[in-house]
Amino acid sequence: MSAPKDCQPIITVRGLRNAFGEQVVHDGLDLTVCRGEILGVVGGSGTGKSVLLRSIIGLQTPEAGEIEVLGENMVGRSEDEAKNIRRRWGILFQNGALFSTLTVAENVEVPIREYFPFIKPPLLDEIAGYKIAMGGLSADVGPKFPSELSGGMIKRAGLARALALDPELLFLDEPTAGLDPIAAAAFDELIKSLQKRLGLTVFLITHDLDTLHAICDRIAVIADRKVIGVGTIPELLALDHPWIQEYFNGPRGRAAEASYKKGATA
Amino acid sequence: MAEVTEHDTHGGKGSVYRVAGSLTITRAATTQREIDALHDPLTIDLTDIDRMDTVGAWLVYRAVRDRGAKVIGASRDEVSLVEQVGDFDHPVRVAPLEKHDFLTGLQELGTWVVESGKTLVGLLGFLGASLIGFANIIKRPKRFRFNAVVQRFDVVGVRALGIIGLMSFLIGIVIAQQGAVQLAQFGAEVYTINLIGRITVRELGVLMTAIMVAGRSGSAFAAQLGTMKITEEIDAMRTIGVSPIEALVLPRLMAAVLMMPLLGFWAILTSLFGGGLFVWLDLQIPPATYIQRLQEVIPMTDLWIALIKAPVFGFIIALAGCFQGMLVEGNSEEVGSRTTTAVVQSIFLVIVLDAIFAVFFSSVGWV
Predict the structure, then answer these.
(1) What residue ranges do the domains of chain B occupy?
(2) Whether this model's pTM surpasses 0.90
(3) pLDDT, tens digit, 9 for 90 and up, residues A159-201
(4) Residues B77-102: b if buried by 16+ CB within 10 A, e if exposed
(5) Would you give the end-to-end CA distance of chain B in angstroms?
(6) Does the domain spanning B2-87 belong to CATH 3.30.750.24?
(7) Could you tell me which chain A residue has the CA closest to the CA of B84?
(8) What is the pLDDT, as a whole number, of residue A194?
(9) Do A129 and B91 touch (CB under 8 A)?
(10) ipTM summary value
(11) Using the beta-carbon criterion (under 8 Å), do A165 and B95 form an inter-chain contact?
């Protein structure tokens, strides 16, 4: 159940503890993400999936524990030191978090301008252009503002911005939530193909059983304030934890598994 | 890290661009400059590359696309990365098309005029909707949201006491001090009391309060309703069957209308107190004399004028704030701009109305 043998850890979380006042969200949480894998994180509502993500990317200072990302310690470091790491990851927030006063293309250019101010506008625009295409959007979306986009397009634009600096590590917070099944499947496909093409490591929070079946190499389950298991779906089912059983063997879990198997044999 | 060689190929001048190490976004600006400076026909030698990202691949791709450059020494991964990047080559516009000429200038002016007209009509409509909502509540008093109104009283009125009191106190002192300096030139310091009394009661007390309430509460109304508009809370209310006018706008209107006279009166008292303190300490006029003089020089009509103006100002402030808040659409930037508009509009309208009131009350003999 531990990490695979050839695992090169890219994120290591040890003994993480997060609490908001009396309410303890994480206590003694351990997790390792290996280079080049797509790790899905699942858990019931309120189990602290997003808090875990925020702790890893440094938006939430944990009460205790160690977090190492790309070989660097993340807890208690200064903003300047963290900048070098921030450059090497991309994050897609749950609601896209696009800057509403900038166009989609300008949104994609923001991280590039911030870190590489010497890149000239024509080249910058070309880079933004192919990133937008990579995110699976058509060319006419570039000059549009986020308020003119649909939910699925906002997620794709957010993904294009997350990819702007060619990250090694991609964080996705519920990327398929709120998308219709066709758009969600297309988004899964997109993530999988980008991960293969660019050699990304993906940390993915999701509720979507189809996503878990279709693209995740390993799945981490959060319950009882810690990660109760990491592995492929069969490995997790062997754990005999009631929440895991109910999650994957419930009606929705079975349906997702059946459709995935059908897709695999077809 | 890049080595550039110029050499003869087939009799013509050509150049070879040899990159070593990494070809990534970190060196994108330099790489592009170096490639642009080279002569055609261009050959790019990737033999010594150990890392290439999509930006590096894009630079190679566009050299191939635009200048027919030849790429040599690329490994299979690098070739496939360049090809993949090429797959995403669709020309994308970055900013919306904008023309700047005389016609678009005229067009913008026209749009502005039409928009202003629409806003005015919208404001009238909003006023009407508010009055209808008020009438509905009078018809069915059970619908009256007592708690919401009391909460607004607290926010608009009680919590403003401190800042408005302090502001008025200081204004009282300033009027007394400046008045005393000027009037001393004629040996008429005692008339400082007339000045303080009449100017604060008749004009400044309520006017300054209105400006403070516009900045404090009018802006808050616009921002609150605007944010609720963006998060679709107001749409949710409508679909549940709760009228946003009754639930959100009326409590705010009532709070502003009822609190403004109280705050204005409070402002008048504290300015008189501040002025009295200065008069006592600087001109040695004892408080008892000060109060007696105030009673003699301030006609009762001055207080009526203040108390009549105050609710009207409160109404204007709340109406402008709520109206601008309800106009918010789209993004968070608009919350900010609508809030600004609400404050500017309400202060402007308050001052215009104040001028009208001044002329009116003077002409009906309340001088």
Answers:
(1) 2-87, 122-363
(2) no
(3) 899 988 888 899 999 888 888 888 888 888 888 888 887 888 9
(4) ebeebbebbbebbeebbbeeeeeeee
(5) 86
(6) yes
(7) A197
(8) 83
(9) yes
(10) 0.74
(11) no
